[in-house]
# Entry
Amino acid sequence: MNDEKILIGGAVEKAANGYDFMAARIDTSGSLDLSFNTTGFITQNLVPGNVDEFANSMAVTADGRIVLSGTVEYGSAINEDVGLLLLKTDTTTGVPTLINPSFMEIFPNPSGDELTITVSKPMTLTISDVHGRILKMIKTASGANKISK
# Structure
């Protein structure tokens, strides 16, 4: 971040509901930045119920939105989906606002030769491998988009 503060992401355990996505901001002294959501962190569950959601990737867009992506586990590692969370930090209060958490659906997971990405509005997506190498950049239309190797 250009203000020398550090964003971190991951998961936080919620007693009755498994793990939820978490983002926190650290100030230059190494303490939680209380100007970020007044607590220094935000947690968000994506799927109701006792579901484990682990954020394992984070990016900040040019306009300051925070993007978290990760894994949603339904009871076991066999039943997994991709989770995506988009936050926009209010520049006056520092409080992140959830931006339409269900605007994207990706299936099947795991995928083979074809992947379907359903979005609520047109966008440009970058598909990368686990090493960050860009595999494909695509422009989507609203609705279901089939992506082949």
In short: The mean pLDDT is 77. The first strand starts at residue 6 and ends at 14. DSSP finds no helices and twelve strands in the chain. Residues 1-101 form one domain.
